[in-house]
Amino acid sequence: MAKRRAKRATAVIPAHRPVEFGTPPGTLLAPPGALSTTVGVICYGEAGIEEFAVADPSELTPLREKPSVLWVDVHGLGDEDFIKQIGDVFGLHDLALEDVLNLHQRAKIEYYDDHYFIVVHAVDYKETLVVEQLSLFLGSNYVITFQPRKIHCLDPLRERLRKRKDKIYLNGSDFLAYSILDAVIDGYFPVLEKYGEIIEDAEERIVAKPTPESLAGIHDVRRELLSLRRIMWPLRDALNSLYRDETNLITSETLPYLRDCHDHAVRIIDLLEIYRELGADLQDIYLSSVSNRINEVMKVLTIITTIFIPLSFIASVYGMNFDHMPELRKESGYFIVLGVMGFIGLALLFYFWKRGWLTKDDFDPKNH
Amino acid sequence: MAKRRAKRATAVIPAHRPVEFGTPPGTLLAPPGALSTTVGVICYGEAGIEEFAVADPSELTPLREKPSVLWVDVHGLGDEDFIKQIGDVFGLHDLALEDVLNLHQRAKIEYYDDHYFIVVHAVDYKETLVVEQLSLFLGSNYVITFQPRKIHCLDPLRERLRKRKDKIYLNGSDFLAYSILDAVIDGYFPVLEKYGEIIEDAEERIVAKPTPESLAGIHDVRRELLSLRRIMWPLRDALNSLYRDETNLITSETLPYLRDCHDHAVRIIDLLEIYRELGADLQDIYLSSVSNRINEVMKVLTIITTIFIPLSFIASVYGMNFDHMPELRKESGYFIVLGVMGFIGLALLFYFWKRGWLTKDDFDPKNH
Amino acid sequence: MAKRRAKRATAVIPAHRPVEFGTPPGTLLAPPGALSTTVGVICYGEAGIEEFAVADPSELTPLREKPSVLWVDVHGLGDEDFIKQIGDVFGLHDLALEDVLNLHQRAKIEYYDDHYFIVVHAVDYKETLVVEQLSLFLGSNYVITFQPRKIHCLDPLRERLRKRKDKIYLNGSDFLAYSILDAVIDGYFPVLEKYGEIIEDAEERIVAKPTPESLAGIHDVRRELLSLRRIMWPLRDALNSLYRDETNLITSETLPYLRDCHDHAVRIIDLLEIYRELGADLQDIYLSSVSNRINEVMKVLTIITTIFIPLSFIASVYGMNFDHMPELRKESGYFIVLGVMGFIGLALLFYFWKRGWLTKDDFDPKNH
Amino acid sequence: MAKRRAKRATAVIPAHRPVEFGTPPGTLLAPPGALSTTVGVICYGEAGIEEFAVADPSELTPLREKPSVLWVDVHGLGDEDFIKQIGDVFGLHDLALEDVLNLHQRAKIEYYDDHYFIVVHAVDYKETLVVEQLSLFLGSNYVITFQPRKIHCLDPLRERLRKRKDKIYLNGSDFLAYSILDAVIDGYFPVLEKYGEIIEDAEERIVAKPTPESLAGIHDVRRELLSLRRIMWPLRDALNSLYRDETNLITSETLPYLRDCHDHAVRIIDLLEIYRELGADLQDIYLSSVSNRINEVMKVLTIITTIFIPLSFIASVYGMNFDHMPELRKESGYFIVLGVMGFIGLALLFYFWKRGWLTKDDFDPKNH
Amino acid sequence: MAKRRAKRATAVIPAHRPVEFGTPPGTLLAPPGALSTTVGVICYGEAGIEEFAVADPSELTPLREKPSVLWVDVHGLGDEDFIKQIGDVFGLHDLALEDVLNLHQRAKIEYYDDHYFIVVHAVDYKETLVVEQLSLFLGSNYVITFQPRKIHCLDPLRERLRKRKDKIYLNGSDFLAYSILDAVIDGYFPVLEKYGEIIEDAEERIVAKPTPESLAGIHDVRRELLSLRRIMWPLRDALNSLYRDETNLITSETLPYLRDCHDHAVRIIDLLEIYRELGADLQDIYLSSVSNRINEVMKVLTIITTIFIPLSFIASVYGMNFDHMPELRKESGYFIVLGVMGFIGLALLFYFWKRGWLTKDDFDPKNH
Fold first, then answer.
1. What is the pLDDT of residue B362?
2. Residue C178 sits in which domain range?
3. Which residues of E touch D310 (CB under 8 A)?
4. Are residues A253 and A349 in the same domain?
């Protein structure tokens, strides 16, 4: 079990080293095991909507000049040169590109001369928590997204763009960026729902039968919630600063939507805190459940011992081999002693019942 | 029991998903199981007071122009089109209307061009905690309230309006909005009183007999208090910002009343914190009660065992079948041994009594 | 015992409902069980000092105009009309008067056009903690105090006024208000001293013999300290804001005194925190004391059992009735077996002594 | 032991009442048990350095006018009139002088018209923690210090002054005040070192043998650290405000030194926090040590009982007196039964060894 | 073991006294056991790069005037005069130099007239945590570093300088200082990785077999993490203030790099907090593991006792020596009693199995 837990922990806790130790800052290195890079472009505006794949970054240069909104969607971070060239086309800062390739960033929103650099994390729950880092650049008329692996919660967005009637289609790049953030954040709710179910299951199991495994399960859940919280807090702060930042990149039309987005993030944190408290509660219930069981086992032991030890003593007294023990010679001696033993046994049972140590449940073997 | 607890938890913890995943923001969708929508209007001012039901939102348009104060009270959120049309008449923002229909908002106060949007939660205690979301729009001469289900604490308000002499009747829409908030907040006190009783009962029960069920009961209460706290904190902050916000919507006459309202919210939070501490205390009392019982059971076991084991040993010594055991042949051997046993037993009892392990209570079967 | 504790709790935790539910704000209702109202007036200044009782509020109107300082001291809140009329004479706000009558306010300092409204709590310790709410209005030349029941810590103030030489006599109404606050706050120190003694007693008792009652006692004390803290925190904040507020009501002469008063409040909070930590410590000591006792009981049980069970086994072996058991026939068999038993018993005692399970204390029945 | 602890607590926790209840503020009352007052003066500057005792405060008046720096060092607070007269000479505020005599002040720095009033606490460790309050007035050309008892950490300062070359001698009164504060704060380090040793000792003792006394010892240390922390936090804040305050009393030359002093205070708080955490750790170690011992005792009991109870049962079966028990008549019956018993005993031992309940340590009596 | 732990603690907790008590501030004293001082200089710029050792501080004076960037790298703090002379050449403040020699500083960044004084800590993990203090002065065209012992994470920097193409070479002294800070901070990641492994190992060990030693190990780790946290918090604050400080010393080119550096520090603190939580989790797992074992031991004891005690009682009844015991005379009496005993034994086993006290695991000796 320890093995499995260690694996889960690894899945949740980021690897620690950002890049190879001693590498100069701003060096671009594809993360280990990265998928190969493919680039899809969606270009929309008054002239309609176009979708196509890009094989060479230089194809992007003419698109920058168009009045339409440009969404460059990069999948897989395996090709560091390709990414470097995209950076050159849009004038992205080296440190930002390094952060795109380094997959253990905190959520953040940084402003560089003419564009925002935003890092958020999309989550999913498939047997265990899956976290994907989404890096996003927002310029005056473009949005560039970098996904190490495909993030599914962005699919409905493309559909809405293609319908050409949705608010996204009718607004600028800032609204597209908001819509992406909103999709990512709304993706937290089903995951939290999942944790809600896990906690409820765990509670039923623990009350029914507390095992060390069930405790370990709670610790896993709390750990993953801790990890989610670590992701959400900086995201909330970043959204807050984005909402307050007044640059030309965010139109006043989009601002109430960002406020709404920030509101959702706050609600997610609220839920996370509640789940963490519920997890802590489970631990209390577990411990008190175990100590109740110890108490119960002790009571059984004490009752049995307390009843039979005096009786055995009486029996062993009359098992002594003294020549002169008058009772032994009596005809009815044996039966009198049996009667006395019976009386003592019943009296003790009565005493325990009065003290509340014996309840009907104790005789019901199904009750554990 | 686990089932019942899970149900309570569900009642308290909000469902997690705001709307169907992938839905564009601002989409209006009636919440599942919503009641059908009915709209009542109260219109009062110098010209007197009128009350009537509205079947079509267009009937509201002429009322907007009147100099009187207009209270549009919407019950049931089942008819999303109706609500959309009300929004159109009063120029309400799509995101605000979406929040009206999404029943798991945090308390908040948002300002849109010419109106406030306020979300608060009314609470009631019927077997378990019942939370209802109340959405409120406050414009220069109107107040619109949306209640998913009838909130009873607003009834006295209507009565006071009908009397035509109350401060509400004589003031503008801001005072009406304050009065609604005040009624909702004052509705927390009886609920807290109820929790006070529950905690006192739980304490008596736990001290009398600590069972795992009683612990589970404490956890339920603490969970519901946690949930109330989650509702109250943002409400307090929102009231604070409303009190400080200086727009034309709130007259200086109403401001001291809002301060009073904020004061009540702070007092409720104070009480919640005290109850939560009392709940935590109960847990300590429970645990120490259980560990005292283990101690007590152990003492009984130890006393019985310690007294009879040496005695049994003596008896079994004289039960040995050696040919040559001089004591066995003595006439008075048996009685001397019985005497020695009696002496040892009394000596041990005396020792335990001196150590404080034996008290009068131990002989009183009623004492558990 | 549970009963008694519940009562104490009720004494400490405020009743929850401010006024009857559904009552309009600003309604004056005497609190249940209020004493009948009597009003005493002290009027002092260059023209000397006058003291008299007031039967009708209208008698106060001419006093307002005088250049002297006026202290209206209202005892008992049973007569709501009387209080309403006093409010009218001095132009006090309805909400403030409502708060005077509602006995579960937080400490606060509010400024209304030309007067301060201050709520503080005087404490006393008579068997249990007694909290009295003192409401105070400070105007340019008057101070009005409302005491539900007589607050004894104000008595020395009147004495000092009558001496005509004290700083109070020589300064204005602001210094009188400060002196009242100072007297109330200094009244916390003897109460804290009392709690210090209670905690020291409890510690001695717990170390001597931990009983569930002693734990319950600690919980009571912690609860009362919690309650005091709930009273002191807002008071400190209020004093801080009063000290910073620069209205004409507080002269620069009085300001250093208010700073001193704030300083005392901070010191009281410091002490409260220390006592709360000591209370928490006691709980730890209690729990470790109980678990030490369990350990000790276990050791006694284990030593007795471990020594006698092997011996009894040997005895029972030689109690078997086999026809052919050569040892039984030996002349010295019995004595050899007794010797072996003695050796085993001593060897085990030695082993336990070496492990540190047996100490001199275990043989001292006075040591529990 | 309880007695001793109560004494320590009293040494650490301040008496609670500042002055006799009901005394007007600003009244000067010597603290109970105060030493008689003696005043030493050091006067230094371009004209050299003079040291002499002062018997009458009026002797100080001409010194105030001199261009040199004047250090009035008051020992013992027994003579309240003397102190009052010093206050009159230098124009010190009554409230400040009251605080000088009241020995349970928090550290603070207050500014009065033309001088600072500073309260700090010097600490020393002699068997138990000793705290002395040092009150200091800093004027443009004088420093007045009040020490209830001689504070030894100021001795090196006088030595440095007498050498006439040290920075103190060459700078003004502000640098003298800084030097005094610095000496007091640096005096915390040896005390903390002492606590470090105490904690290390306690840890070794607890791991070796956890006794209730060792736990009580930890509680004492934690209590004293709590008390130190209560002293240091306000001191740090006061130093911070002094460093930021820009009055003419502190020259820009002295400012970096004050920053350094503040730095030291922060480092002391850091160490205090670490020690408090170590103290809490010790408590955990203690508790887990006790519960390990219970576990160990239980295992011994269980092993012994589990081995001998079945064996005793077998023996008692063959001790039954039935007429017809074929085994009893067999020649080798006794030896077969002994063999079976031996086998069962060894098998159980093997089982326990396999489960890890028996280790080499269990046979080593030195291991406890 | 206690010895070893005490040693580790000493390695982590700083010695407490900054300098000998009573020493005037600004006195330079080499720390005890300091290495002898050697000074290496790297001087680079348009004119190329030069590296040489310096034997006399006066050799540095001409270098200050050159337009190139000067990196004075001081190893070993044993020669206080040498260091004093370097301070004189560059005009460094006495207090800063004192802090260089006092090895228990908090991380800090202080601004003196024309240079920054920065203290950071480099960490390494060799069996235990190793912390080295790095002091750094940043002037307009120079950087001076003081290392008590060689800090290895600076080696790659020199390599990068020698390549003459790296950003360091092409920028000024501010970028050099940034690069040093960055190298130091990035050195935390491998150490944290190490702690991650230690915690994972500890978890596996505890779940497998909880021993007091493993708990002590967790305490050591938590203590070292506490110590790292104590180092990182002030560093993060210092970096934040450096990033915000706008003096001429930091060019706008370097600012985004400092932001990146601050970002890394925040990420390290995040990881530290997670590890501390994981450490706390381990403690919970340990305690619940121990209490589970107690429970398990108790169950074995109870089952064995409960089964055999009634059987032994029956056997001892028929071991009594009454003359008249009819069962004893029956031919089949013995076998009937054996049968009854067998039935009782099996019935009890069945009862325990139904209650869930007996599982397959209990019969598997490998399962502990």
1. 57
2. 2-13+24-287
3. 304, 308
4. no
